[in-house]
Amino acid sequence: MDYRDVNALIEEGEGFEVEFKRKFSTPEKIARALIAFANTKGGHILFGVDDDGSIVGVESEKSEVDLIREAGLHFCVPEIEPEIDIVPFDGLDVVVATIAESDQKPHYYAGEANGYPNGEGTRVYIRVNDKTVMASKEVVKILKNERPDAPAIKIEIGENEKRLFKYLDENERITSREFSKLVNISQHRASRILVGLVRAGVVRIHTLEKTDFFTLAYDVTK
Q1: Mean per-residue pLDDT for 10-35?
Q2: Angle at 38 between CA 141 and CA 18, to 5 degrees
């Protein structure tokens, strides 16, 4: 990572794979961003860059690099080790943390880990557009099934699935709660069906900041 790389990221602006941070905050907040990128498609966090892309620099490179490493080591489960570069930029230093997409999804935020098996907390974060948001239960299940050791998918198309396809053909989108009411099953079962169909590539999940909805991946009625 050098001056040209940083300049290109700044010109690109904040988005799905790029986040600017004017200054370092707490390791807990940094951990949430690390987790979101690792659980999604990876990305870069630029410390010392304001929201508008202006360079403000960092005060102490060593202490701030230590803070990033602390966040990945102590507040992420499994641990996240980002690649860290200190890049001189117009007389100021920008710290760049590069996070690869993980093959150990989902990563949990360890701030709530006490009392949970394997040190797992209750919160999982992902990237949605240019924001870090908490993942729904359905997204967490899908992340688990993206791991290389995930079991093979097997689905059956029954009456519930057929009614779902018909509804989506007529209404375009549905939430897990709406599907549960549509076919009169528990929300847990509705969630399981939807996750299986997402894994099979029949249905797509769309995550907003506060909710998820599902659409057909293609026209299954033809």
Answers
A1: 91
A2: 125
